[in-house]
């Protein structure tokens, strides 16, 4: 019958490695100098002792026994310094928020021509005086109806808006008898408040890729048979007409209260 080795005094072969694994005697768990390190022995003596232990095939033990005593002290000092540095100077982690440069992209798709009236059926009329042009909302009847301007909407596509209800548009004023129709509506700040201006531009304006061009963009939102126009550059400000006749078209930040912000558009 094969002899069973004593697990407390003899090395035990391990199937998971080629080296001998050694089980320490039970008393070593309670000894101040854990086995196999003898008590009261210097490092060189320990080195010799380790070499005499044939049963322990440990690369680490053999390496340690060959390190000169002076080198060992130096390594110990380095280890203590390294440990102290880790304890005194913990690594700090900073949460950084990354920002990406945003490009205002409005991709031109096509243009459509519309007639326009507000909810009280006032038409848009362009009045010119001493080189200045102003858009007015006026009740027109009979032959005067020909004074009404039309709106050419340059339609854009943008990843920031829903294509179902909201369409980014640039609004170009079209006069029936004009040689050149190059006036566009834009919303800019004047004395701290957004105002409507007319600006000469060679249209149609193609893709808009800068924030400065955003003054020409209005978000056309359809609701039933009417549409509203909100400034892209100044959210919350809408194209409007007064409930009184013969008043300028302007920008307001209240929808449908004192002013009219919903318009009938009929495509031509």
Describe, in plain words, how this protein is organized in 3D:
The protein has 268 residues and is an alpha+beta fold. The protein contains three helices and 16 strands. It folds into two domains: 12-88, no CATH class; 107-267, Trefoil (Acidic Fibroblast Growth Factor, subunit A) (Trefoil), CATH 2.80.10.50. A hairpin with an 8-residue loop joins β6 (150-157) and β7 (166-174). The longest helix has 20 residues, at 69-88. The chain is elongated.
Please describe the structure with a list of short key phrases separated by commas or semicolons.
about 270 residues, six-stranded antiparallel β-barrel, three-stranded antiparallel beta sheet, 3 helices, Trefoil (Acidic Fibroblast Growth Factor, subunit A), about 35% strand, alpha+beta
Catalogue the unreliable spans: 14-39, 48-64, 85-101
The largest sheet has its strands arranged as 3-6-7-10-11-16
So what's the overall shape?
A: elongated
CATH class of the largest domain: Mainly Beta
- Please give the radius of gyration in angstroms: 43 Å
Order of helices and strands: EEHHHEEEEEEEEEEEEEE
- CATH fold node name of the largest domain: Trefoil (Acidic Fibroblast Growth Factor, subunit A)
Sheet having the most strands: 6 strands, antiparallel, barrel
Which bin fits the share of residues in helices?
A: 10-25%
Protein name: Interleukin-1
Subcellular location: Cytoplasm, Cytosol; Lysosome; Secreted, Extracellular exosome
GO cellular component, one term: cytosol
GO molecular function, one term: interleukin-1 receptor binding
């Amino acid at each position: 019958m094969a002899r069973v080795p004593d697990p407390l005094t003899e090395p035990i072969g391990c199937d998971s490695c080629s080296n001998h694994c050694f089980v320490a005697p039970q008393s070593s768990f309670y000894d101040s100098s854990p086995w196999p390190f003898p008590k009261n022995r210097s490092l060189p003596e320990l080195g010799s002792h380790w070499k005499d232990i044939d049963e322990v095939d440990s690369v680490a033990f053999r390496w340690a026994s060959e390190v000169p005593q002076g080198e060992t002290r130096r390594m110990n000092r380095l280890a203590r310094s390294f440990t102290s540095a880790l304890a005194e100077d913990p690594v700090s982690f900073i949460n950084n928020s990354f920002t990406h440069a945003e490009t205002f992209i409005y991709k031109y798709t096509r243009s459509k021509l519309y007639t326009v009236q507000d909810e009280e059926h006032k038409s848009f009329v362009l009045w010119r005086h001493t080189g200045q042009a102003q858009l007015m909302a006026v009740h027109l009847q009979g032959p005067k109806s020909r004074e009404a301007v039309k709106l050419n909407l340059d339609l854009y596509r943008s990843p920031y808006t829903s294509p179902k209800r909201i369409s980014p548009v640039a609004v170009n004023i079209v006069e029936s008898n004009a040689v050149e129709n190059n006036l566009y509506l834009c919303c800019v700040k004047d004395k701290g408040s957004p105002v409507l201006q007319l600006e000469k531009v060679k249209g149609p304006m193609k893709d808009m890729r800068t924030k400065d061009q955003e003054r020409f963009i209005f978000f056309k939102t359809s609701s039933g048979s009417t549409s509203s126009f909100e400034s892209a550059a100044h959210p919350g400000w809408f194209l409007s007409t007064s409930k009184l006749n013969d008043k300028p078209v302007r920008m307001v930040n209240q929808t449908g209260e004192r002013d009219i912000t919903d318009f009938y558009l009929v495509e031509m």
